[in-house]
UniProtKB/TrEMBL annotation:
The lineage of its organism: Archaea, Methanobacteriati, Methanobacteriota, Stenosarchaea group, Halobacteria. GO terms for molecular function: identical protein binding; pyridoxal phosphate binding; transaminase activity. It comes from Natrinema salifodinae. Pfam families: Aminotran_3. InterPro entries: Aminotrans_3 (IPR005814), Aminotrans_3_PPA_site (IPR049704), Class-III_PLP-dep_AT (IPR050103), PyrdxlP-dep_Trfase (IPR015424), PyrdxlP-dep_Trfase_major (IPR015421), PyrdxlP-dep_Trfase_small (IPR015422). Signal peptide: none annotated. This is 4-aminobutyrate aminotransferase / (S)-3-amino-2-methylpropionate transaminase. Belongs to the class-III pyridoxal-phosphate-dependent aminotransferase family.
Length: 442
């Protein structure tokens, strides 16, 4: 008899209600077990997972190589604090990250989550530059602890909890669908969006800039892919102000966009690169990596984390990287390009699909009300309720997707990268059926 036998979805939710803070309410699908791209709940229902626990289980749920590596490490030791007891899994992983990250990025600090990686990166940027201020992007997401919350450009996450510690200033996101439809070309929009950052530095800071922090593709903001040339310009602006470019690759790293890191799609290398989510395929681990020159600004005692760089998580990360390099990243690029085209076709077939966009297997469709004009621009009004309905209907048909974005009107497709084209095809078929159903009701 399994320890789960007496549990149903309902009894589980009752205990959640009783003993958990009510944060979980908007989430769904109780999880009994999972394998590759399939998730099973406590009532025996199976789902195709097209969201991978918010973009985490990149090499598939319970990937054999990752599970074996973690089990082998459990038999050696579980904890020693990697900053007190130098150990092999952490050293091996740090060396491996130096190999797979772009440019001169070489030395890492390990923590347990994305938000910690971002906060640590800011501390390092301050220590290295001797400056204090930080610019981030409107609609960007960098975490929910009070330091990262300052960088997160979305009041939804701050309401009744601000002001965040060390408030940052925010520049407009490179969101062409809403803010750049009138730009003559992608290049013209890239120039304009970069000029906005310069303007914010000019008007909202005292030019004591430590860093500009950006997501190379915005995740929680609604899968916003910047125009070509933009990231390069942002790096130049940061350096013109003696500041660092921090790329927050917590969501985009580890193969998600069809390259190991999303910054590789652009001709700019960040000074500090943050990682978490997919790094260990679900074991809690975060990191930030910098060039030796920058990293060596940290001295002993400047930063630490008791659990950071846990050896079991690091062993899992090493196996995850091997799996990714064994062909998964290359396949992600191909499957992603195909999915991107298939989703783009929805724009012609459904008025409510305002925009489709993404890189690799980080794709989104933006749902709109074509009869209403949206805020601050020419694009139609965001259709938040419709996006929620599409998410619910897909779940009822056995498919888990994400629903988010600044306007909460973006349906997100971020499956394990091991998803097959048949499974993506099934997702597209169900998505079309749901869109037909909801638009027929209108
Ligand atoms: N940065 C980015 C870009 C993210 O997408 C997230 C999580 N959605 C975070 C930071 C925060 O990560 P965590 O939830 O592990 O703190």
């Amino acid at each position: 008899m399994s320890r789960h036998d007496a549990v149903s979805n309902e009894t589980l939710e009752t205990r959640y209600d009783e003993y958990m803070m009510p944060i979980w309410k908007s989430l769904n699908v109780p999880l009994r077990r999972a394998s590759d791209c399939t998730v099973e709940d406590f009532d025996g229902n199976e789902y195709l997972d097209v969201f991978s626990g918010i973009s985490v289980t990149n090499v598939g749920h319970r990937n054999d190589a990752v599970v074996d590596a973690a089990k082998a490490q459990l038999d050696e030791f579980v904890h020693g604090c990697s900053y007190v007891h130098p150990n092999r899994p952490v050293a091996d992983l740090a060396e491996r990250i130096a190999e797979i990250t772009p440019g001169d990025l070489r030395k890492s600090f390990f923590c347990n989550s994305g938000t910690e990686a971002v906060e640590g990166a800011i501390k390092l940027a301050r220590k290295y530059t001797g400056s204090k201020e930080v610019v981030a992007l409107e609609m960007g997401f960098h975490g929910r602890t009070l330091g990262s919350l300052a960088l997160t450009g979305n009041h939804t996450y701050k309401r009744e909890m601000g002001p965040a510690i060390n408030d940052a200033v925010h520049a407009p996101a490179p969101y062409r669908y809403r803010w750049g439809a009138d730009a003559d070309s992608e290049a013209a929009f890239a120039d304009r969006a970069a000029a906005e950052i310069e303007h914010v530095i000019g008007t909202h800071t005292s030019d004591d800039l430590a860093a500009i922090v950006v997501e190379p593709v915005m995740g929680e903001g609604g899968i916003v892919v910047p125009p070509k040339g933009w990231l390069e310009r942002v790096a130049e602006i940061a350096h013109d102000h003696d500041a660092l470019l921090i790329a927050d690759e917590v969501q985009t790293g580890y193969g998600r966009t069809g390259s190991m890191f999303a910054t590789e799609h652009f001709d700019a290398t960040p000074d500090i690169l943050t990682q978490a989510k997919g790094i260990a395929n679900g074991l809690p681990l975060g990191a930030f990596t910098a060039s030796p020159e920058i990293a060596d600004a940290f001295e002993s005692g400047d930063h630490l984390s008791t659990f950071g760089g846990n050896p079991v998580a690091c062993a899992a990360a090493l196996a995850t990287i091997d799996e990714l390099e064994g062909g998964i990243v290359a396949e992600t690029a191909e499957k992603g390009a195909w999915l991107d085209d298939e989703l783009a076709a929805l724009e012609d077939d459904f008025d409510v699909v305002g925009d489709t966009r993404g890189l690799g297997l980080m794709q989104g469709i933006e749902l709109v009300d074509p009869t209403e004009t949206g805020p601050r621009g020419a694009a139609p009004a965001p259709a938040k309720a419709l996006a929620a309905t599409v998410g619910d209907e897909l779940r009822d048909r056995g498919i888990i997707v994400g629903v988010g974005g600044y306007y909460k009107n973006v349906v997100r497709f971020q499956p394990p990268l091991t998803i097959t084209t048949d499974q993506l095809d099934r997702t597209l078929g169900e998505l079309r059926a749901v869109l037909e159903e909801v638009t027929a009701d209108a």
